[in-house]
Amino acid sequence: AVWVSEVMLQQTQVATVIDYYNRWMQKWPTLQALAAASLEEVNELWAGLGYYSRGKRLQEAARKVVSQLAGRMPRTAEDLRKLLPGVGRYTAGAIASIAFGQATGVVDGNVIRVLCRLRCIGADSSSPAVIDRLWDMANALVDRSRPGDFNQALMELGATVCTPKAPLCGECPVKQYCRARHRKLFGKPTPVPDVEDCGAGDCPLCPKATEPWDSSLGVTNFPRKAAKKQPRAERTATCVLERRGRRGVPEYLIVQRPSSGLLAGLWEFPSLLLAPGLREEEQREVLADHLRAWTGQPVETGSLCFIGEVIHVFSHIHQTYVVYSLSLDGDMALDPASSPSRWVTEEEFHASAVSTAMKKVLRARERQRGEQSGRAKGSKRKRGAKSGAAGS
């Protein structure tokens, strides 16, 4: 349970995780149950939570525990990192201290903020020198008798009191030790206690001379972060390919992504990454060629109905989906030699392992259908009113 919660909470807020966590633990309450599940089931339950490789590695590690470690979880942070895929330094420390009582520290975003402010560490908080020093501090500070409680309290301190903006310094239980607060109150940093804490002249922990203390920011001068790298921009042509099902309900073709890379193993509408600078007609042509491979039928560019653009920002990609729709008459045989694909109803689509971006794409298609229906009804009313007037 601790392991699952910590993996889900990586780069995801608690409020988002709660429902996913409860559903996961209800479905797979033990390592053995998770190891017996299929990757498709894992992806379906994880859909919408983001960073999908986390769920895949969680299941891979559960299978390893069951098949290679006799069902027994490693008990120390060192062994957890060494033996389980997807378990890094923080996750290993959290599991070892909370679940197994090992006196080992943890360093997450909240802890980084607390410790950087406590010690006025003004260098880039993501630099190896700073991260190593923070881990040394966390391991030295952790309570030996209640390490799990201490680590959770330290993280909670950062989440609720020592917040990124408007921290509640007056309520902080460690305010008397906080050098950033001392500097805010008295206008100057506290003296460095000994030479071992700070290299003379070129300290890897101190702020650069080009980044002076801003008195208006107070303790929120820390931690310092490197400039965030802008996500690269990509454009992808996507087609909502649909047909009338047996009961007259629309069915959509979804295809499975490769087993590695972005959104590995998830399902999506037939999509194609676009080369930069393509004109609209060129986009239609390359998409039509791509669809011919799926349908085995000729696809005319003029039959592709443009829906609009859907934007979805991943952690490192600003993705623009150029969305088209195409309605097919009659049945269509899917090529078993190509990637896995299947026809699904709207209900089956939402129950499948599809990304949030694809759900946005389907909503765009549904809006288009609603607008087309509204225009059709409006034109009928106008014709009726006109004929009625003429008859009177």
UniProtKB/TrEMBL annotation:
The keyword Ribonucleoprotein belongs to this UniProt entry's keyword annotation: no
Any single Gene Ontology cellular-component annotation: nucleus
CDD domains listed in its UniProt record: ENDO3c (cd00056), NUDIX_DNA_Glycosylase_C-MutY (cd03431)
CC cofactor: [4Fe-4S] cluster
Enzyme Commission code: 3.2.2.31
Region (Disordered): 362-392
Composition bias, Basic and acidic residues: 363-374
PANTHER family, A to Z: ADENINE DNA GLYCOSYLASE
Protein name as it appears in the record: Adenine DNA glycosylase
Species annotation: Alectura lathami (Australian brush turkey)
Source lineage: Eukaryota, Metazoa, Chordata, Craniata, Vertebrata
Gene: Mutyh
